Amino acid sequence: MQLSQEYREHFEREGYVVVRGGLQDSDLDPVIREYEEYIDKRARELKTEGKISQLHEHEPFGRRLTRICEEDGTIYNELDIMQFRGRALFDFLRNEHLMDLVEGLVGPEITCNPIQHLRPKMPSRTAKTPNTHIAGWHQDAAVMREEADPIEVLTVWIPMCEATVENGCMQVIPRVVGKGILHTKSAVMEDGELPQTPAVPLPMQKGEVLLMHKETPHNSTPNLSDSIRWSMDLRYQQTGTPSGREVYPSFISRSRANPQSVLTDHGEWCRLWVEGLERGKGYKFYRW
Ligand SMILES: O=C(O)CCC(=O)C(=O)O
Questions:
Q1: Going by CA atoms, what residue is nearest to atom 2 of ligand 1?
Q2: Is the entire prediction scored with pTM above 0.70?
């Protein structure tokens, strides 16, 4: 699906747009299956090691990890993109439907920025799981280093299940773009830095895609449901521009001019991340 003029105008005016039907189950399900298989394998290992009492194998995708983590939280820290590095996940980062949407705003030469996450946002009441996926108000521009300030890095937020107000969907402050970085002290906005415009909660269905400008303030609230809110947040930009996190690997995910330059080698992507994570130890990720 190409990004329509109407969607583009909404993005330009509001600083974000939710694209209905941007992805299909067949785009997301291979990633979900890959995570299901991994969680199953790791649950069996933890059970053998005596760290969990049961496999919880009859629980659905939205609940199994919660049940496992109530007994042992190890798997939780193995699931973000750079640690997990699955093949289906890597393929998804240059998925054709996704690239079509991104091309509508970034143009035909697209690089995948390394500031990218896959978040299993756990129900808040899960005692043993670190609640790291509650995002305070911030602009993504502020989590990049200064060299990316002039660059248009597009945030793409993708729910892998329904995202609701109850399970902690994204919220944005519209029409802020053009004022630059509003943070003055840290990667999270302080009281008084947030524009007074009312926030817009963005409940989304699986298959919908949020495209967001890097200056749009956004947050996400605690997950008050009893199911995990699975999502990905990815970033893309024009090839040849600085990522704002140079220590980690960017890669070309679409090129109309030079299709051979697209990275399709899963092993090489993994290698780049292993090296990048090593290089990133002690790196100053934020400007403050
Ligand atoms: O997924 C979330 O809850 C927060 C995501 C976020 O803050 C971001 O993509 O910058």
A1: 220
A2: yes
- Give the residue, by CA position, lying nearest to ligand 1 atom 8: 233
**Ligand 1 in reach of 221 Cβ (< 6 A):** no
pLDDT digits (tens, 9 = 90+) for 60-72: 999 999 999 989 9
What residue owns the CA closest to ligand 1's atom 10? Answer: 140
Q: What angle do CA 191, 15, 13 make, to 5 degrees?
A: 125
Residue 102 C-alpha to ligand 1 middle, in angstroms?
Answer: 18
Q: Minimal CA–CA distance to 225: which of 133, 127, 124, 135? A: 124
Give 191-239 pLDDT, tens digit per residue: 899 999 999 999 999 999 999 999 999 999 899 999 999 999 999 999 9
Sorted by where each begins, the domain ranges of the chain are: 5-24+94-279
Question: What angle is formed at CA 52 by the lines to CA 50 and CA 53, rounded to 5 degrees?
Answer: 90
Distance between CA 171 and CA 256 in Å, rounded?
34
Nearest to 99 by CA among 253, 250, 232, 206: 253
Among candidate residues 79, 88, 92, the one with its CA nearest the CA of residue 42: 79
- Quick one: fold of 5-24+94-279? Jelly Rolls (2.60.120)
Q: Helix and strand tally (H, E) in the chain?
A: 7, 9
Q: Does the beta carbon of 151 lie inside 6 Å of ligand 1?
A: no
